[in-house]
Amino acid sequence: MDRVRLAGLYGVDVTYRPAPGREVPVPEETVVAVLAALGVDASTPSAVKTALTAYETRRANRLLPPCTVLRSGRGTLAQTLRALPEDTRLTVETETGEALDSAVTPPPGRYALRAATADGRTSRGDLIVAPERLAGPTGRAFGFMAQLYSTLSQRSWGMGDLGDLADLAAWSGRTLGAGFVQINPLHAAVPGPPTDPSPYRPSSRRFPDPVYLRIEEVPEYAYLSGEAREKADALSRRAAALRDTVLLKDALIDRDAVWALKAEALELLREVPLSPGRRAAYVDFLAEQGQALDDHATWSTLAELHGADWHTWPAGLRDPRSPQVARARSEHMDRVDFHCWLSWLTDAQLGAAQRSARDAGMTIGVVHDLAVGVHPAGSDAWSMQHVLATGMSVGAPPDAFNSRGQDWGLPPWRPDALAATGYAPYRDLIARMLRHAGGLRIDHVMGLFRLWWVPEGRPPTEGAYVRYDAEAMLGLLALEAHRAGAVVIGEDLGTVEPGVREELAGRGILGTSVMWFERDYEGTGPKGGDGRPLPPEAWRESCLATVTTHDLPSTAARLTGEHVELRHRLGLLTRPLAEEEAADAAEVAEWLALLGRLGLLPEGAVDEEAVVKAVHRFLARTPASMVGIWLPDTVGDRRPQNLPGTWDQYPNWRLPVADADGTPLTLDRIAVSPRLYALVDDVRQAMAEAAGEGPDGGGHP
Questions:
Q1: Are 158 and 152 within 8 A, CB to CB?
Q2: Which burial class, exposed, middle or buried, applies to 434 when counting CB atoms under 10 A from its CB (0-12, 13-18, 19+)?
Q3: What is the pLDDT of residues 214-226, one digit of tens each?
Q4: How high is the pLDDT of residue 525?
Q5: What is the pLDDT of residue 333?
Q6: Is residue 528 scored above 80 in pLDDT?
Q7: Which SS3 state, helix, strand or coil, does residue 55 take?
Q8: Distance between the two ends of the chain, CA-based, in angstroms?
Q9: Hey, which residues does 144 pair with through a beta bridge?
Q10: CA-CA-CA-CA dihedral for 568, 569, 572, 574, to nearest 10
């Protein structure tokens, strides 16, 4: 029992529930391994007793916790720290060093907290004051959800780029009245070749990937001359040929080929001197980004020299604070500066995209996506070893849909180490993500409450849940979003612990509601609790409502059952094909019947485009704050961007947006698609009618 108590003190659950009413014990070996990753020896009974004594001693001797989090309007500092000795004097300081009255809860922000007792004991900690609740979107809004790499134009070099993002936002905002564009994570990837195309297993979440740069929009491009101009023009012609190849039927996006061309062009641009104003802006950027950028640029340089997995580097280079790394940084300073410069250019184009969105009238603008973790071989894993759990990987336990569990290969945050730093790495990450964003989607938002840790070498079935201080994680997220004036969307699909959705809603963090998953299991509908499709009026308001996502079939494929056949061809079905097809057809039929009863679909209608429009009219009838339209759905694309459970069996994250026949479409062609305009007109009209405003026609090219 001592080990169970010790595990509880460190937030390690010793059981889990794969299904309601069923509790499974975590293997003892897993508990020992997870505690070891938290710096706690629980290998023997005596070690456990020693660890318990050490924990109690630290708690008794500590005046202040490393980080204290308050919510405005939810009690005072004294109430939160009620365990302090009566004679304790508290001091609150702002980020500029100004002293505040500790009896008054300060406004949302970051502060230093100091405590001193009459017997001379002192302590310092961080104080975070979070807003009571985020404001959320201003009115209801619809927008597009797109994988940026797949949304290329006649101007991009073989994959969608930040110029395309700015254009997509400007067009959809001005012409259609869209309020946002939600995109995939633009995090820096672990370099190849081959580069892992998944945006959800990045090298760094703190810095964007320069592969998304629009080369011609780097200001120095205009000043290329002579031989450099000739080389740039030749690269542009090669890029056009690459783009034309990608636009052939059944062609794939070749990220490495795109980067090879852009890297060569950027080497040319690097030789163009910055103007005085540009130089000053770059120097300011370097100062603002500080150690984090220096680390990322150093890792990128060392990866060029020694390979992309820092675990295989010479021993002295594996520690980012070692003398060998400092010497290597000095020896290769020009290359380190090159990677800093790339981050600066990318940051500038990200800012331009958000300005383009807001200038087009978007109420939100660009909604960025935060992946749940980072690649263990990459930049963040190297530079933040002190706050990541060595030998552990994030995943998911066995459940009704996956009896084997999941291992995502991403090292998790150490909750104890985060707290010891005042959550600085986490809050820095959130602030960077919100730097040029109107909104932020948090992938697997349940990870702010708990994560399933899988010890290295063990199957995902032998993991354990480790809990985080949700008050701190959510408070810091809310604070940074409040400062940025941004909305936050939590991806809360799948297994969600009771109370999580309520907690998110109470803080003004939107959830994610996907139509196919919205069924009445709790008795909220007219026939309550029978698992039937949830009628629109019963949906939650605090959510982004969608028909599909990047991990699910396109709506056309769902309606026709093509996604079942695809999974059958790839050997992913767990039941006979006929059984899967029958179950899928029955599910679709239930939804079509509801659409018919609501008058959204004429009786007997079988036209695929008409049904796609009907399901989106259904979304518009819900009270959801945001309605997301999957961009490929607007042109009839039938292929999923990602097929979970596959690696090289399916071209995940490499498909350009295509029409119903599989012919790739550029953004230029998407923007004049009659099918898109008809769908958006229906959504706008349905949203206007739901608001009691009457029909509302849309714009046309």
A1: yes
A2: buried
A3: 999 999 999 999 9
A4: 47
A5: 98
A6: no
A7: helix
A8: 70
A9: 181, 629
A10: 30
Does residue 654 register a pLDDT over 70?
Answer: yes
Rounded Cα gap, residues 457 and 67, in angstroms: 34
Query: Which amino acid is it at 331?
Result: E
Q: What DSSP element (H or E) covers 538?
A: none
DSSP-derived secondary structure for 113-181: EEEE-TTS-EEEEEEEEE-SS----SS-EEEEEE-GGG---TTSSSS--HHHHHHHHHHIIIII---EE
- What pLDDT is stored for residue 393 in this prediction? 97
Tokens found for residue 48 = 């456990």
pLDDT value for 694: 59
Short-list 620, 618, 583, CA closest to 600: 618
pLDDT at 101: 86
Amino acid at site 413 = W
pLDDT in tens, 110-133: 999 999 998 889 999 999 999 999
**10 Å Cβ neighbour count for 598?**
14
pLDDT of 647 reads 87
Using alpha carbons, list the distances in angstroms from residue 647 to 191, 266, 568: 18, 31, 16
3-state SS, one letter per residue, for 480-536: HHHHHCCEEEECCCCCCCCCHHHHHHHCCCEEEEEHHHCECCCCCCCCCCCCCECCH
Distance CA 637, CA 550 (A): 12
SS (H, E, C) 272-310: CCCCHHHHHHHHHHHHHHHHHHHHHHHHHHHHHHHCCCH
Per-residue confidence band for 523, with pLDDT thresholds at 50, 70 and 90: low
Of 60, 66, 40, nearest to 419 by C-alpha is 66
How far apart CA 163 and CA 152 sit, in angstroms, is: 9
The helix/strand/coil state of 359 is: helix
In this structure, the chain runs to a length of 701
What are 609's two structure tokens? 């485009």
Q: How far is CA 510 from CA 11, 76, 294, 445, 542, in A?
A: 26, 27, 34, 10, 5
CB burial of residue 18 (10 Å; 0-12, 13-18, 19+): middle
Q: What is the pTM of this model?
A: 0.95
How large is the average pLDDT for residues 678-696? 87
Nearest to 665 by CA among 329, 248, 294, 208: 248
Question: Do residues 340 and 415 touch, judged by C-beta distance below 8 A?
Answer: no
Say yes or no to pLDDT of 527 above 60.
no
Cα separation values, 246 from 163, 168, 205, 254, Å:
18, 19, 28, 8
Query: Which residue, chain included where needed, has tokens 């080929």?
Result: 257
- In 380-494, DSSP assigns E strands to 392-396, 406-410, 439-442, 450-455, 464-467, 487-490
Residue located via tokens 């049904």: 611
Structure-model confidence comparison of residues 469 and 520, the more confident one: 469
- Identity at 35, one-letter amino acid code: L
pLDDT tens for 314-331 read 999 999 999 999 999 999
* Cβ atoms of 133 and 509 closer than 8 Å: no
At residue 527, φ and ψ (nearest 5 deg) are -110, 15
pLDDT of residue 691: 87
CA separation for the pair 75, 394 (Å, rounded)? 35
Task: Round to whole Å and give the CA distance between 701 and 684.
Answer: 16
- Strands 67-71 vs 15-19: parallel, antiparallel or unpaired: unpaired
Whole-angstrom distance, CA of residue 155 vs CA of residue 362: 24
> Which 8-state DSSP code applies to residue 191?
P
